[in-house]
Specification:
Helix content is 67%, strand content 7%. It contains 7 helices and 2 strands.
Length: 138
């Protein structure tokens, strides 16, 4: 039974996700954001979000976790929220400071991505990424 669990896709995927997240969080600590918050800033760097629901889906994050992280980013004045198109929606966008922080993180993020790519040699990075993207669509 132990050998079966060692090969459990669920357990190994979760362990890998936690390891990559811990690694990213350590590298982002000096910028004052977590990996989840960096991903939020990244999504917003392309333009304002129309809704929490859509943004949560884009990030594969539940709405509660997204709302909690947005509140932290808003307190730090990295994002701003305003009235959306509909009464129950709000617009979320990067502030100038949020954009500055996001752009200052990008070189470190790129270096970290390159380090991870270099660590993945068998299978190669692209094969691993393709497999993860396939699993994410299940």
């Amino acid at each position: 039974m132990r050998n079966e669990l060692e090969n459990c896709l669920i357990m190994n995927t979760r362990m890998a996700a936690r390891a990559v997240t811990r690694r990213a969080d350590r590298k982002l600590r000096g910028f004052g954001v977590t990996s989840a918050q960096f991903n939020i800033l990244g999504v917003l760097s392309t333009g304002p979000a129309a809704s929490i629901t859509d943004m949560a889906a884009d990030l594969a994050m539940d709405r509660t976790t997204l709302s909690r992280n947005l509140a932290v980013l808003e307190r730090r004045k990295l994002v701003s929220t305003g009235a959306g198109e509909h009464a129950r929606m709000r617009s979320i966008e990067l502030t100038p400071e949020g954009r500055r922080i996001f752009e200052s993180i990008l070189p470190e993020w790129r270096n970290s991505q390159e380090e991870l790519r270099n660590l993945l040699t068998n299978p190669d990075f692209q094969t691993t990424l393709d497999g993860l993207r396939h699993l994410a669509k299940l």
